[in-house]
Amino acid sequence: MKDHQRKPYEISGSVNFGTLSLNKYKFIYKKYGVIIFRNFFYKDKIFCKFYEELKSLALIIAKKNKIKVSADLNLDELITEISKTHRKEIGKLYDLGTRPIKLLSGIQLKIHPGILKILKGISDYKNIIANPYLGETLHIFPPGKENFQYNLPMHQDYPYLMQSPDQITVYINLGKLALFGNGGIRAWLGSHKFGISDIKKNKLKLFETKNSGYFKKKYLAQEFYFEKGDLAIFNSLMQHEGIQNHSTSTRIVQLVRYSNLLNKDSISYYWQSKEEDKKRKSICFKDIHF
Questions:
Q1: Which residue, 5, 36, 240, 245, is the most exposed by fewest CB within 10 angstroms?
Q2: Predicted TM-score of the model (pTM)
Q3: How many percent of the chain have pLDDT more than 90?
């Protein structure tokens, strides 16, 4: 895509971390609720280390299950081949990047100096930034009709995570973009300015924005698709939904969230995160809002 064809919230791979650029990025983020850095991780050592370790582990999964694959395949191609006969085995990779990231290379990616520089530049954060308990997810979407249940309807990230409504979602794309589309995100630009919206649960017990019709009428919907090495930063209050993978390829992305603990709502409930442990009472969205 040529630069003149880019949307105002898209930045080319060459990123200048000077003050003027960061101010520009902040303006874009505040206006749209999203900023995308195309090819941000090109030849980045931290990104490549995480990617190669996931690929090595995928090869081990293939070998253990006697699946013949070439070591020359990309990570998304390896996952696609494994999922044809052993889809559940992909969950082993999912666990390594989810609640929390277990790989040290993944932890390094989470605190990547470039990411932290942008976060501090575009936000009003002061000094106290944290990750919510459920804030890290290695999303893997292999081909298959089952995918519909993993693509969330219109929602905000915050109700799933809590800790602070002043929260940023970082989207690190690890797979190649398929020719006929392996899914992505549909977002309603500027909808983060509305603030926290009420929720309901759908038939699959997934959170869904209660007044979704209002946002569809008021805000412009934009679809986002990502190439390997793209970085996207979303406001966690922006209304968005998943776009299903209808291709024969896999979509794989590492998500990380960052919260401002000095937010007044966050302070009111002592910056607690939502947790999975059913034996321990966890904070709930409905306990605090609506």
A1: 5
A2: 0.94
A3: 80
